[in-house]
Structures are given as C-alpha cells and as structure tokens.
Fold this sequence. Notes:
Blueprint: H1 5-11, H2 14-20, E1 40-44, E2 50-53, E3 57-58, E4 66-67, E5 75-80, E6 87-92, E7 98-103, E8 113-116, E9 121-125
Antiparallel strand pairs: 1-2, 1-9, 3-4, 4-8, 5-6, 6-7, 7-8
Amino acid sequence: MALSEAxxxxxxxxxxxxxxxxxxxxxxxxxxxxxxxxxxxxxxAGCAQALFSSRTKxxxxxGWPSFWTPLERAVGTRADRSFxxxxxEVHCSRxxxxxxxxxxxxxxxxxxxxxxxxxxxxxHPQAA
Length: 128
C-alpha cells in the first residue's frame, strides 16, 4: 500500500504517524489496547490489515500489548540498529507501518514476545 507522506498524515493522527511512519514508540502503559482482553483481532491502524489474534495476546508486564505470534503473513521484520543495539523491528506486511519489536523472552509455544505499540493498531471485537 503506497501513499504519499501527505496522505499518511491525513489518514493518521499525529501520534499514529510518528509511530507507524517514523518508527516512534508510545509511552508504556499509555494504550487502552494494553488492557484489551476481549476476543477479536488487532489490526494495523494504517491499512486495517489483521495482524494478531486475541488468542495469542499475553500480559508481558512491559506496558505494551504483547503477543506470542502474529497471524500468518501479517508482519515482516528487519534488523533495527538504532540506539546502539540490535533489535528486530516488526512492520505491517501490507503498508510497511512500524508496529514495534519482537524479542525472544516470550511464553511457549514460540518463546517470542511481539511487543507492539497500541497506537499502531485498532481492535475489532469478535461478533457474538
């Protein structure tokens, strides 16, 4: 999904733009999605692609919504060498929006912790 910077700025709030398009990070414990526990899907705030199922969400006590695996083909990763360290950045596979980072300190079955910015996502509750 290719949009101009002006189109992204029009589509997103300033805080969402900073995270999704400029690889920013929200303050820990600032997102309501951190406390979202209903069944449903977490989707990209930039393009609405489904990213994570609530079935894979867990409480990481880090202050950001965390998941042990994404939906199939929903995200991509790349090396992030900012801040003098090497981390694995996670982005939406459709629009390229920055979502957060993945770490190897998560629960079974994957052992991964996809630590996502809540402002980079929206939540769609499962229909009753």
